[in-house]
Design brief:
The chain has 6 helices and no strands. The N and C termini lie far apart (50 Å). It comes from Capillibacterium thermochitinicola. Keywords: Capsid protein, Virion.
Length: 175
Protein backbone atom coordinates (compact mmCIF):
# COMPACT_ATOMS: atom_id res chain seq x y z
CA UNK A 1 0.00 0.00 0.00
CA UNK A 2 1.36 3.40 -0.96
CA UNK A 3 1.15 6.16 1.60
CA UNK A 4 0.52 9.74 0.51
CA UNK A 5 1.88 12.19 3.06
CA UNK A 6 0.88 15.81 3.44
CA UNK A 7 3.66 18.38 3.70
CA UNK A 8 3.04 18.67 7.43
CA UNK A 9 3.15 14.89 7.91
CA UNK A 10 6.41 14.70 5.94
CA UNK A 11 7.89 17.52 8.03
CA UNK A 12 6.87 15.80 11.29
CA UNK A 13 8.44 12.53 10.11
CA UNK A 14 11.64 14.35 9.15
CA UNK A 15 11.76 15.76 12.69
CA UNK A 16 11.23 12.29 14.17
CA UNK A 17 13.92 10.92 11.89
CA UNK A 18 16.44 13.45 13.21
CA UNK A 19 15.38 12.68 16.80
CA UNK A 20 15.91 8.96 16.24
CA UNK A 21 19.32 9.57 14.67
CA UNK A 22 20.36 11.63 17.71
CA UNK A 23 19.06 8.96 20.09
CA UNK A 24 21.01 6.25 18.26
CA UNK A 25 24.18 8.35 18.39
CA UNK A 26 23.74 9.20 22.07
CA UNK A 27 22.95 5.65 23.16
CA UNK A 28 25.93 4.24 21.25
CA UNK A 29 28.27 6.93 22.57
CA UNK A 30 26.96 6.62 26.10
CA UNK A 31 27.22 2.81 26.04
CA UNK A 32 30.92 3.27 25.30
CA UNK A 33 31.29 5.84 28.09
CA UNK A 34 29.28 4.09 30.83
CA UNK A 35 31.21 2.59 33.75
CA UNK A 36 28.56 0.12 34.91
CA UNK A 37 28.22 -2.97 32.64
CA UNK A 38 24.48 -3.08 33.37
CA UNK A 39 24.07 0.48 32.14
CA UNK A 40 26.18 -0.26 29.04
CA UNK A 41 23.85 -3.16 28.19
CA UNK A 42 20.76 -1.01 28.72
CA UNK A 43 22.11 1.72 26.43
CA UNK A 44 23.10 -0.84 23.76
CA UNK A 45 19.62 -2.41 23.79
CA UNK A 46 17.97 1.01 23.55
CA UNK A 47 20.24 1.94 20.62
CA UNK A 48 19.07 -1.17 18.76
CA UNK A 49 15.43 -0.29 19.32
CA UNK A 50 16.05 3.30 18.21
CA UNK A 51 17.57 1.92 14.99
CA UNK A 52 14.35 -0.02 14.41
CA UNK A 53 12.41 3.21 14.96
CA UNK A 54 14.60 4.99 12.40
CA UNK A 55 14.03 2.19 9.89
CA UNK A 56 10.28 2.49 10.41
CA UNK A 57 10.32 6.28 9.98
CA UNK A 58 12.36 5.90 6.78
CA UNK A 59 9.79 3.44 5.43
CA UNK A 60 7.01 5.91 6.16
CA UNK A 61 8.95 8.70 4.47
CA UNK A 62 9.29 6.42 1.43
CA UNK A 63 5.51 6.04 1.31
CA UNK A 64 5.43 2.52 2.74
CA UNK A 65 3.42 1.25 5.66
CA UNK A 66 5.83 -1.01 7.59
CA UNK A 67 4.81 -4.43 8.79
CA UNK A 68 4.92 -4.01 12.56
CA UNK A 69 5.03 -7.78 13.15
CA UNK A 70 8.57 -7.93 11.79
CA UNK A 71 11.57 -6.15 13.20
CA UNK A 72 9.85 -4.07 15.87
CA UNK A 73 10.95 -4.97 19.36
CA UNK A 74 7.81 -3.90 21.21
CA UNK A 75 5.93 -7.08 20.38
CA UNK A 76 6.14 -9.31 23.41
CA UNK A 77 6.18 -12.41 21.26
CA UNK A 78 9.56 -11.43 19.74
CA UNK A 79 11.77 -9.44 22.11
CA UNK A 80 11.71 -8.12 25.61
CA UNK A 81 11.48 -4.45 26.32
CA UNK A 82 14.53 -2.70 27.75
CA UNK A 83 12.65 -2.42 31.03
CA UNK A 84 12.11 -6.21 31.14
CA UNK A 85 15.76 -6.81 30.32
CA UNK A 86 16.81 -4.41 33.07
CA UNK A 87 14.54 -6.10 35.58
CA UNK A 88 15.97 -9.52 34.71
CA UNK A 89 19.52 -8.24 34.89
CA UNK A 90 18.78 -6.50 38.17
CA UNK A 91 17.49 -9.66 39.78
CA UNK A 92 20.24 -11.84 38.32
CA UNK A 93 23.30 -9.60 38.49
CA UNK A 94 22.80 -6.87 41.04
CA UNK A 95 22.85 -8.12 44.58
CA UNK A 96 22.31 -5.66 47.39
CA UNK A 97 26.02 -5.79 48.12
CA UNK A 98 26.88 -4.72 44.54
CA UNK A 99 24.34 -1.93 44.71
CA UNK A 100 25.81 -0.71 47.98
CA UNK A 101 29.29 -0.90 46.51
CA UNK A 102 28.28 1.17 43.49
CA UNK A 103 26.47 3.66 45.70
CA UNK A 104 29.60 3.83 47.84
CA UNK A 105 31.40 5.09 44.76
CA UNK A 106 29.03 8.05 44.81
CA UNK A 107 31.97 10.42 44.88
CA UNK A 108 33.81 8.57 42.09
CA UNK A 109 33.92 10.06 38.64
CA UNK A 110 32.49 6.85 37.11
CA UNK A 111 29.33 6.95 39.20
CA UNK A 112 28.88 10.68 38.61
CA UNK A 113 29.51 10.30 34.87
CA UNK A 114 26.98 7.46 34.65
CA UNK A 115 24.47 9.58 36.53
CA UNK A 116 24.98 12.43 34.06
CA UNK A 117 24.53 10.07 31.09
CA UNK A 118 21.32 8.70 32.58
CA UNK A 119 19.96 12.15 33.37
CA UNK A 120 20.61 13.31 29.81
CA UNK A 121 19.01 10.22 28.26
CA UNK A 122 16.00 10.44 30.56
CA UNK A 123 15.46 14.07 29.48
CA UNK A 124 15.96 13.06 25.84
CA UNK A 125 13.38 10.27 26.10
CA UNK A 126 10.87 12.62 27.71
CA UNK A 127 11.31 15.09 24.88
CA UNK A 128 11.16 12.49 22.09
CA UNK A 129 8.05 10.88 23.59
CA UNK A 130 6.37 14.29 23.63
CA UNK A 131 7.19 14.94 20.00
CA UNK A 132 5.65 11.61 19.04
CA UNK A 133 2.53 12.63 20.95
CA UNK A 134 2.19 15.72 18.76
CA UNK A 135 2.88 13.79 15.56
CA UNK A 136 0.28 11.14 16.39
CA UNK A 137 -2.46 13.76 16.50
CA UNK A 138 -1.38 15.32 13.19
CA UNK A 139 -1.58 12.21 10.99
CA UNK A 140 -4.66 11.38 8.96
CA UNK A 141 -3.95 7.68 8.42
CA UNK A 142 -4.98 5.52 11.41
CA UNK A 143 -2.31 2.93 10.59
CA UNK A 144 0.42 5.56 10.75
CA UNK A 145 -0.97 6.86 14.03
CA UNK A 146 -0.88 3.31 15.39
CA UNK A 147 2.74 2.87 14.24
CA UNK A 148 3.80 6.16 15.81
CA UNK A 149 1.93 5.24 18.99
CA UNK A 150 3.85 1.96 19.11
CA UNK A 151 7.17 3.81 18.79
CA UNK A 152 6.12 6.31 21.46
CA UNK A 153 5.35 3.47 23.88
CA UNK A 154 8.82 2.06 23.32
CA UNK A 155 10.33 5.50 23.95
CA UNK A 156 8.43 5.58 27.24
CA UNK A 157 9.76 2.12 28.08
CA UNK A 158 13.30 3.41 27.48
CA UNK A 159 12.68 6.26 29.89
CA UNK A 160 11.17 3.92 32.46
CA UNK A 161 14.13 1.53 32.21
CA UNK A 162 16.57 4.41 32.75
CA UNK A 163 14.50 5.68 35.69
CA UNK A 164 14.42 2.18 37.22
CA UNK A 165 18.17 1.79 36.77
CA UNK A 166 18.83 5.18 38.36
CA UNK A 167 16.55 4.39 41.27
CA UNK A 168 18.11 0.94 41.79
CA UNK A 169 21.61 2.40 42.22
CA UNK A 170 20.61 5.44 44.25
CA UNK A 171 20.89 8.04 41.49
CA UNK A 172 17.23 9.03 41.53
CA UNK A 173 15.10 9.17 44.65
CA UNK A 174 11.61 10.52 43.98
CA UNK A 175 10.17 12.26 47.01
Amino acid sequence: MSLKLTNKERMLLQDQKSHEEICIQKYNDYANMASDPQLKALFQQNAQTEQEHLNTINQLLNGQIPNMNQGQSGGQQQNQSPMQILQQQSSQQLSQQQTNSFQGQNQSSGYQADQNLCTDMLMTEKYVSGTYDTAIFEFRDPQVRQILNHIQKEEQQHGEAIFNYMQSVGMYNPQ
